[in-house]
Specification:
Chain lengths: ~500, ~450
């Protein structure tokens, strides 16, 4: 029942939130229910993988061969936990931001949470598709209603991009469906679908495009910096912290095990594109003057590295990716919180107009420096084990170009340090100017939110084994699929 | 059979009600009550209670497919009357006659959904078309309405001529009007006469269903006709024509599928392309909906292309999804003073409930999951995917669906995100609640399509 609860709680409470009249009440309500969701998600974590309450199967759309089946496995647990942690943090950190019609804002946020939970839980392809879109629609309304000046056009671009991707994925799903032995959308049937090599290539591209747009991977990233910049920061946190993980998750769950051959064949090509994206985005990030855009490009770089790790197809790379999906979500939410605080206080995000904040707001500065160091994967922070494993994975992958890939990824890391440290130096150190002279330190709720993030950073930086343990089963499934490649595949 | 006779009788009753009943409200209520009876009678027939048993010599057969579609058409018409019947008062003075004409159209619809003979098909199409010519021109003092009516009549008469010629050719080749006998023909090579007849039928049906390149009348007629009647024409009538279309080709020409399949594919691509691309450039929501109806016709054509069990099932769902959503949008549009996209600016502020329901209808038309529109499109794609080697058609269709998002979302953007002062209009609570029911139906069908489709196998 736990996976059903994880979807239903945010869904129903989200719908209820539409009817709140008072701003304060709706905030309290969303904080309360998101904490409740977090509790349920932790409860799911405490159960052993494969336990009875972690799966649910219900009849739904029988004429179509689809059912309402959800399951919480290791990878799902990790991402559901990320999703569940992100919401209370976001609500807490943005407690002082005011929104017109706050009830609609929080209702849509909760609906998006329900959609994302479902994506991480679904074991039926059609259900997966439904929830994939359910997560997108509230985001569209959130960004277009509460965003910046250019929000309408920018969000529309984002929507069209992802919608085209989703539709192509739908065709891919249908294609696999028509090749399943028992004409069903369940994940087991999908894993047993018989596809020739040629068909695998078609299916791979149909589905991969959707995930590549969502992550996003160079050159499909053009919607991302604008959308992050224009969206309200609370939404941006969810978008970059949780939603982009849907793309990576989708690849691991729905793409690699179904079409292992094509995934292997196209690995080099996509890794190249992803790593070019890493360097390209890092270079742009160095030149950015707007804090939001800087972090947006930094996110493209990080996701590019994760995508490259996904295609290494060895245990080290995949395990690194899994825990990095979680940790990157936590870290980037921390960065966005800082941006939100700065913007709310000074009304600007321009790096050139800020400076010397460390003298005025020491607590903020300390917390930010820790989050920023986690962002560049310093040892003892949570990102280090993940990035280390991913590097190891890229270096030991079977491709002929492994050395080049490792060098490119390494350059990405170095450039990441450049722009992150540069940002800290310009915003927090140096001399204060007229604008930052009046700066005040952060309030208790913001301290709490950032404090929790810092605690998580250290916790999983020192003891990553917990995360690694929970995903090892999923990784093995994927690796097995790759290893069975030659035995199971029908010859042309 | 229940629905066929009752709808004709009710049409006559409504004609006289104009003389006998003084108040317009009474006429309206009588029509709505009559429609309820009609719907009930049809549902009873689905459950096996048949009031009239007339031997039609196999020319009309009411099977699950036709009965289910009749029910969909009657429910749509009922909702349409509940939402928009008041607005017909503004069109002209012959209030009762409009209802009479609508009942006659419904009578034609029961024929086109149940024919097994080409003659009955012809009768049905004509019984639908002639009242429509009148309804299009019912705004007598409006030149645009007159123009639309004349245009519709001339082109419609021309396509009827084509249809008759096609029927004659087929009769010449086969010696029968019965679609079943034509379908039973298994000779290796069909004669040229039969093929010519089939093509003529294809063209004339394409005209009635506004399939490109036979669509040119559609935007002008839909735009010129009084908006209340456009709503009826663009939804229920169009759906009925498609039902006739698939019934004709399934029964009579199913065995030659390979020969006309490419033809249908070309028509589908053209319809999708022209409908969607032209709709992008419209400034008026009414005209946009006219092109959107062409675009949706393109999607319905996919069922004709695939012509399997999924396709028939999906087409039924499609007609319901499309009719419900479009009726809802038109019902709101009728209440607007300004039909342009800008006329919707800031609408959500004044009428949050109406804006929310309209959004659901638009999302359904765009094919977003959790709405009936998604599942109906999904069925179409699934039906085509079951055939081999036509991935290109499916990819083209979804790319066009992505284009359609552009113009449907323009309305949403205007309602929610743009500042403006869309004129608040007088809406009754009953109107609002009917819209909410309609929106609930759209979502319900989007989550549990089996509720509707189970009747197909009953």
């Amino acid at each position: 029942m736990i996976p059903v609860l994880l979807i239903l709680i945010p869904l129903l409470t989200g719908l209820a939130a539409f009817f709140f009249k008072n701003d304060k009440n709706v905030r309290l309500w969303s904080l309360g229910v998101s904490l409740f969701t977090l509790g349920v998600s932790i409860m799911g974590l405490s159960l052993k993988d494969g336990a009875g309450p972690l799966a649910f199967h219900g009849e739904w759309m029988q004429t179509l061969g689809s059912s309402f089946s959800v399951k919480l496995d290791g990878m799902g647990q990790l991402l559901c936990l990320l999703n569940a942690i992100a919401y209370p943090l976001v609500i807490l950190a943005t407690w002082n931001s005011s929104y017109k019609k706050a009830n609609n804002f929080f209702a849509l946020m909760l609906l998006a949470q329900a959609g994302m939970m479902g994506v991480f839980l679904a074991t039926d392809a059609l259900l997966f598709y439904f929830l994939w879109e359910l997560a997108l629609i509230p985001m569209y309304f959130l960004c277009s209603q509460w965003g910046g000046e250019k929000r309408i056009a920018v969000t529309f671009k984002f929507f069209i991009y992802t919608f085209i991707g989703s539709l192509l994925m739908l065709i891919g799903i249908l294609y696999i469906y028509s090749h399943t032995p028992d004409h069903s959308f369940s994940i087991e049937s999908f894993y047993n679908a018989v596809l020739s090599r040629k068909e695998q290539h078609t299916v791979f591209w149909l589905i991969f495009i959707a995930f590549a747009i969502k992550m996003p991977i160079f050159p499909l990233h053009t919607w991302q910096p604008d959308t992050y910049e224009q969206s309200p920061t609370a939404t941006t946190m969810i978008l970059s912290g949780v939603m982009v993980k849907m793309g990576l998750f989708g690849m691991l769950r729905w793409l690699f095990p179904v079409v292992p051959f094509a995934s292997f064949q196209w690995g080099d090509f996509i890794t190249s594109a992803a790593l070019i994206g890493v360097i390209y985005a890092s270079l742009i990030a160095i030149k950015q003057n707007d804090l939001k855009r800087l972090i947006a490009y930094s996110s493209i770089a990080h996701i590019g590295l994760m995508c490259a790790a996904a295609f290494t197809q060895n245990i080290s790379g995949l395990q690194g990716l899994m825990i990095q999906m979680f940790n990157h979500g936590i870290n980037i939410i921390g960065l966005w919180i800082v941006v939100e605080l700065i913007e709310r206080q000074f009304g600007t995000r321009k790096i050139s107009e800020l400076g010397g904040l460390a003298q005025k707001a020491p607590v903020l500065a300390v917390l930010l420096v820790i989050v920023a160091l986690a962002n560049i994967a310093l040892p003892l922070t949570n990102a280090f084990p993940g990035e280390f494993l991913m590097f190891n994975g890229i270096f030991s992958s079977k491709t002929n170009y492994y050395l080049w890939f490792t060098i490119m990824a390494g350059m990405g890391i170095v450039l990441g340090a450049v722009y992150t440290l540069n940002m800290i130096r310009k915003v927090f150190y140096g001399t204060t100017n007229e604008l930052t002279n009046t700066a005040m330190d952060i309030k208790w709720n913001e301290k709490l939110a950032l404090g929790i993030i810092v605690a998580i950073i250290f916790l999983f930086g020192i003891y990553p084994q917990f995360l690694l343990n929970s995903t090892v089963a999923v990784t093995d499934t994927i690796i097995d699929k790759f290893e069975m490649l030659n035995n199971t595949l029908p010859k042309q | 059979m229940n629905a066929l006779l009752l709808s004709a009788i009710l049409g006559v009753v409504m004609m006289f009600s104009g003389i006998l009943l003084k108040s317009k409200a009474a006429v309206r209520n009588l029509a709505i009550a009559g429609l309820c009876v009609l719907l009930l009678a049809n549902i009873l027939e689905m459950c096996g209670t048949i009031f009239f048993n007339i031997d039609t010599k196999g020319m009309i057969v009411f099977d699950n497919f036709s009965l289910l579609f009749n029910s969909i058409a009657f429910v749509s018409t009922l909702l349409y009357l509940l939402l928009s019947a008041r607005d017909m008062e503004k069109v002209g003075v012959n209030y009762a006659e409009y209802f009479a004409l609508i009942f006659f159209i419904l009578c034609g619809i029961t024929l086109t959904s149940s024919f097994k003979s080409l003659l009955i098909l012809f009768l049905g199409i004509e019984i639908i078309s002639i009242p429509l010519y009148i309804l299009t021109g019912s705004d007598k003092k409006n030149l645009k309405s007159n123009e639309a009516s004349l245009k519709y009549f001339l082109l419609g008469a021309f396509s009827t001529g084509l249809m008759l010629m096609g029927i004659a050719f087929i009769y010449g080749a086969m010696g029968t009007f019965s679609t079943v006998s034509i379908g039973a023909f298994t000779a290796s090579k069909p004669s040229a006469l039969l093929i010519a007849g089939m093509l003529l039928l294809l063209f004339s049906m394409s005209f009635k269903a506004s399939v490109a390149p036979f669509h040119f009348w559609t935007p002008d007629v839909y735009d010129g006709a009084p908006t209340v009647f456009t709503s009826f024409m663009a939804t229920i009538v169009k759906a009925a024509v498609f039902i006739a279309f698939i019934r004709l080709f399934d029964d009579a020409f199913g065995f030659q599928q390979k020969q006309w399949q490419l033809f249908i594919a070309i028509l589908t691509v053209a319809t999708l392309f022209i409908g969607n691309i032209t709709a992008v450039f419209q400034q008026s929501v009414k005209r946009m909906l006219a092109y959107s109806s062409i675009a949706q016709a393109g999607f319905m054509m996919l069922s004709l292309y695939a012509m399997n069990a999924d396709a028939k099932e999906g087409l039924l769902l499609y007609t319901a999804a499309y009719s419900f959503a479009t009726i809802g949008i038109f019902a709101v549009l009728i209440k607007m003073k300004d039909y342009t996209f800008d006329g919707f600016n800031g609408f959500a502020k004044h009428q949050p409930l109406l804006a929310a329901t309209t959004t659901i209808f638009l999302l359904s038309l765009a094919g977003i999951p959790l709405t009936a529109g998604f599942l109906s499109k999904f069925y179409m794609l699934k039906a085509v995917m079951a055939e081999d080697k036509n991935l290109w058609l499916v990819i083209f269709a979804v790319l066009m669906a992505a284009v359609s998002v552009y113009y449907y979302f323009r309305v949403i953007q205007a309602m929610y995100f743009k500042e403006g002062d869309a004129q608040p209009m007088e809406v009754t609570p009953a109107f609002k609640w009917t819209l909410v029911v309609l929106a609930a139906l759209v979502i319900l069908l989007g989550i549990f399509p089996d509720l509707l489709l189970i009747w197909f196998y009953f």
